[in-house]
Hints:
Layout: H1 4-11, H2 15-23, H3 30-43, E1 61-65, H4 74-90, E2 94-98, H5 103-112, E3 118-121, H6 131-136, E4 141-144, E5 154-158, H7 160-173, E6 179-182, H8 186-189, H9 194-209, E7 214-217, H10 224-227, H11 234-240, E8 243-246, H12 249-261, E9 272-275, H13 278-283, E10 289-292, H14 295-310, E11 319-322, E12 325-327, H15 330-336
Amino acid sequence: MATASDVAKLAGVSQSTVSYVMSGTRTISPETRARVEAAMRELSYHPNAGARALAGSRTNVLGLVTRFTATTEVGALLPFIDTITGYCRERDYDVVLVTADEGPAGLERLAGRAIVDGIVLMDIRRDDDRVATARELDVPVALIGIPDDSAGLDCVDFDVQAAGNLAVEELVAAGSSRIVLIGEAPEVRAQGFGFVHQFADAVQDAALRAGLRCDTFEPSAEGWVGFGAFGGLVADIRADRAGIVARTPQAIDMTMQILLSDGVTPGREVPLVGLCPDDTAEAFRIPVTNVSPEPRDVSRLAMATLFSRLGGSDAPREVLLVAPRLTRRATTAATSD
């Protein structure tokens, strides 16, 4: 079966030019278009989801590309998926969820075969090999997350710096003498997600401005296997009235379980702030003071940006940040009032 790559070779053009001819999204010279169409006829090439075989037509499908790995916190991902699919349903669009880590080839497959009208790309690493491809596709792409090189891209995320500031300010108000940041296991650090490092830096910087020491506990591995060593720190944390910042729901849960098993009540003796959505914070045995990364607001802004591109917007591509929000609950309320 012929592919777009075969058409490109026979016509003497790039594969992206073949995509442009099929989608009609860019002006192609009559001579080039004729060569591509002749090659398609000769090879009996019929693009998948032929809804874009005629210039200007749409599939009414968007691609949502997110990685599922052993370290993926599915609960944190669900608000994004739910909001994105709901936004699309309201506009008579379907969503193709792509979870395999196929790198640039996965994006080229979605765009090159005319499967989707646009792509939402999640789980952005600092040096993400998909970014260069995203810039060159003939369909609009919105990133949820910010790579180190964001030039020429529509990127949306929560303000990680502000989130770190809010967490530390709340712990300072709760009377903390120092800050303990629950860090990441080696498997997570190695993946190079920008927001992970940015949040840690933000907490460290905010503690420094407040004149407090900030220590980081880094689990030796994912899950309880690597987190058990935290129990050895509890006595000093309690004695110092140190405040704890935990970045993920799993880290919040394990921290609270160890504190409680040692007879330490979060909020009464040790203040704790977690980075998680509100519904997660409220579901813990002791409701957790949280800084919400506002996943639904981030998702809606990313979708609004993508649909504006589908509508023909040529506004400059930029990074858009959603303000995080702190809600005080039991894990700091007793010490902050």
